[in-house]
Amino acid sequence: MAAQLMTVSAVQAIADDIRTRILRGEYPSDTSFTETDVAARYEVARPTAKAAIEKLVAEALLERRTNKTAKVIKLGPDDVRDIYLTRGRLEKAVLLELAGSRTVPPAAVAAQRDLERIDSDSGLDIVDPDMRFHMALVDSIGSPRTSRMYESLVSQVRLCMAQVQGLELVQPERIVREHQHLLDLIGSGDGAAASAFLDEHLSRPRERLVAAVGGVPGPEADLGSSLDS
Fold first, then answer.
1. pTM for the full model?
2. Neighbouring-strand partners of residue 62
């Protein structure tokens, strides 16, 4: 049993390290990962390396075509839009439910405070608390199935967020301000406004990232914030 637990721990540790490096841009799109290379790099057995790679394939951070080496996923314009639109559908339903009971999740507030405290030149530092903010909203409705649906998107959502912040496509200050507005709308019970504002919150980075990966951005890429009016 002890040996099995150590293997599971090593798999998780390796997957966590590779995931972090992917999200920080150290491994760009199409970077290859073979069992032999990963085993040598982390000084583990090949079955452990294989399990770590397969874990990241399951998270859709790596992709492996039939009998091919696993590579860091390359997101195209259609992928970016689908990821953002899918998460938006889930999150808007959650916002309507939370606003209906005027429930402001404490975990979302805590993540927001962490965002406000960040004093760093790297926009990548906001990716984790930003993701925790949105996950806290979803988890707060108490639906394990909805949370699992959202979690199935998390790795690719994080990848999008990391690219947005790594390319400095959206100012961190704007994200903080818009998150607070979402919390205020939930607290006031205005679900329709919260849902509409989420569209604005997500559409700007979505279309700017679409442009960054070679697509034609929609008009949302250049829209200002409604909070400025």
1. 0.84
2. 72
